[in-house]
Amino acid sequence: MAIQTRRSDDGRTLTIKIDGRFDFSTHQSFRDAYEHGDQKVSDYVIDMSDTTYLDSSALGMLLLLRDYAGGDAANIRIENCNSDVRRILTISNFEQLFSIR
Amino acid sequence: MEEALVEHGALCVLIADDSDSDRMILKTLVTRQGHDVIVATDGFEAVEQFRAHRPQIVLLDVMMPRMDGMEAARQIKALAGETLVPIIFLTSLSDADALARCLESGGDDFLSKPYNRVIIEAKINAFNRMRLMHRTLTQQRDLIHARNRQLLNEQEVAKRVFDNVAHTGCLDASNIRYHASPQSIFNGDILFACPRPSGGMHILIGDFTGHGLPAAIGAMPVAEIFYGMTSKGFSCEDVLREINQKLKRILSVGMFCCAVFIDADFHLNHVRVWNGGLPDGYLIRRDGRRIALPSAHLPLGVVSPERFAAEVVHLRTEPGDTLLIATDGVLEAENEYGEMFGEGRLRQVLDNVDNGLEAFDALMAGVGTFTGTQRVQDDLTLLSLVMVASEQLTDLTNGLPQSALHGPVSWQCSYEVSDKTLGHFNPLPLLLHICMEVPGLRRRSGEVYTLLSELYTNALEHGILKLSSAWKNSPEGFGQYYAERERRLAEVDGHCIRFSLRHTATPTGGELRLSCADTGDGFDHQIWHPVGERSGAGPDSPDGVRYAGRGLALLRRLCESLEFVGQGNEVEVVYRWDFSEPRAQG
Q1: Given B209, B279, B296, which is nearest A59 (Cβ)?
Q2: What is the pLDDT of residues B488-538, one digit of tens each?
Q3: Do B253 and A97 touch (CB under 8 A)?
Q4: Contact, B352 vs B344, CB < 8 A?
Q5: All domains of chain B, ordered by start, with CATH?
Q6: Would you call A96 and B298 a contact, using CB atoms and an 8 Å cutoff?
Q7: Per-residue pLDDT tens over the stretch B200-218
Q8: For residue A92, what is the nearest residue in chain B, using CA coordinates?
Q9: Residue A25's domain spans which residues?
Q10: SS3 for A84?
């Protein structure tokens, strides 16, 4: 399971890219990906272009990130989901909490 | 024991050799390295010495009188059991076959004569490391075994407690079928069903994030709230809101419960369904047509009470229509190639059934065939609910304990709900609670609740909100009716509904007089005909079954009398009960 992070040039946007299955085994590395960032980060992008699968604990991890990033004030985009991933996000109605493209 | 000593380097080493000189040389070399040495002059003695002293490492000559090294090795390994006791053969043999036989008999390595001090030291150290590693692994394995046993015991206890909290349901009702693993609670799955005082039932099927105890913990309060509020007569929206706010408060962020809530009404034959995060449920009509019930909400426990949406889908049903709800364990059931069952296969199975009654078996068989027989789907929960006419459900008991205590017999009270409170407060549980203080009425809670709820619905929906029950004659109108109800309810103001309750004793039981008045315009009750009585079907009902207006007909059947007062905006009913057994409902 690979998680890569990238900071934008101005340091305000943190992109977290998840390869393969996004499930409980990713828990620690996903947390590490955003918790060690500094205070400047205001926007988060979750890049799912290479994410093959998402389970309910991954949904929980997204909620943890949202909480960390300010709850209702969080600015998190979920991008490039394949249809399976998209379906799971839709069933859970996560578009009400995240901006999903 | 002596293990502390061992960690610091001093080992107890057994040396068995029938040659006095070889034995002396080796003993001297090993002793100089700081180890304690015990000796034996043949294999037989070596086994005896091992039994007496339990040395950590054994050096065995191959050829010895009475018992050779290979037999001694076999016996020592057998005595050592699980403990790793490295055995090193001392040999001048160079024949490969003979050396191989030494290892087959249980030896771990050779040391060739004549001895080299450096090699001896290195081998003893290497085998000591291996021995310690083996010991650590064994200890850890035993610890894991013990912990696992403890965990299973704890789960067993937790499950018993949980079963006590959740057992009172009506999952055994004749129109419910379900599959749930006995340990499903530790997969995070929940399935509850509870009769409503009015005769219908509430069903909650859900799936918590995660596995094990963390997933099971949330199920306890959900069961308490679900059963407690449902049997007190709270609406499905009220129960959902309460569960959501409770879970939001107690669960850690990232834990939540995907769920479907079903409110089935067998009198009026309709269902109301809330889906937050579970896969599409289906309403399968008698003729096999099906309506998907997709998730429309966030799961329970995610958002704060202010943002929580409890809107339900209303569906009109007929006896024989079936609801089929599954947790995502069904879609995620894997076959031996790691493929998931998926929505496509689920729809295929449903395409091939002729009616809803077959759907449950067909789906279970479909998943079983797909996954192979080896695992009986541990973490999937599947439920089917067949809609029936209420007369068919006489086996539903509300499980409320009967009290032998004397309660109030002669009393009266009035209760008025007004203005915006009408839009968000349901007074029925409170009123039912007051009536249930009368022991004789407690056994008839279903009928009493029906009286209260039909009077209230009539006053609110027709009297104040001015909704036309004629809308409910068509499936589209049915949905429109409830949408409009929500809209008008949100805007309601300047109105009130007043309940007056009066209970008196009679020689054989008691009499409950209920009146319900609203501030609406009333209606011309002179022309009102209850369904199925007097003139039968009205002109607006070609099929002879008028859907709406059933509420008042039901009241008339349950009560001694029903009267409209004033312009029809007040209804008074008289309900009598006696000490004999309550009649079957319906």
Answers
A1: B209
A2: 988 888 899 999 999 988 887 889 999 999 998 877 665 555 444 434 434
A3: no
A4: no
A5: 3-138 (3.40.50.2300), 168-392 (3.60.40.10), 411-578 (3.30.565.10)
A6: yes
A7: 899 999 998 877 777 788 8
A8: B277
A9: 2-100
A10: helix
